[in-house]
What does this fold into?
Amino acid sequence: MLEAIVLGVIQGLTEFIPVSSTAHLVILPEVFEWSGVLNSLAFDVALHFGTTLALISFFWRDWIEILTRNRKMLWFIFAATIPVGIAGLTLRARIEESLRSMDVIAAMLVVFGVVMLVAEKVSVKKGVNNLENLKTLKKMNLRDALIVGVAQVLALVPGVSRSGVTISAGLFAGYRREDAARFSFLLSTPAIVGATLLESRKIIHGFDADPALFAAGFTAALISGYMALEFLMKYLQKHPVTVFVYYRFILAAGIILVLYV
It folds into this structure.
């Protein structure tokens, strides 16, 4: 039960903070030799149900506005979701089979950590004299939405981080951190909901193992995910993403030590 709660908390925190939730869910069971249902795809899906509900709960006001008044943003989100939808249906199984290794995760943590650093520097350079030089979501256009949407495809590779790569794409496109993050999470909602529902059949096969473990993991992921979103949206209003990049580097170094030393 404690292991299920720990994994739920880790999933909730790392799904939205740009440090890669997949990396943590692969690494922890392997390092601590947790096996059985806690190291199964069925349990992973239960955790993702928790973070999906956290995401919808946190941004429900935004979605009400988008669905009732801001139809242009709805169109942007729909168009930007198409690339990851196609890639997810055609490539996800192959990626899960061939790239879900600790070597790949360590490499992606470093590579896209560097991408996040460069994106932050580009953003700071654009807004160093005047924050008005940076765009808000009111200035969102289809081209920028598609840039972020294509970047989201890269998040299918373990270790990349969906929020990390899409926020970085928003920064490269010239948006303020908090606006880049908001669009990142709004854009990720259809993809996360779709992927979770697509994988939900796997939870049926594993649910009979111990429903209490699934409930504990789901609840922990829901609560910690909501708290992570609340923290990150406030943090990015005044602070850069560099602290998360340093964590990614430390985590990658830890993986290399475990593997080779």
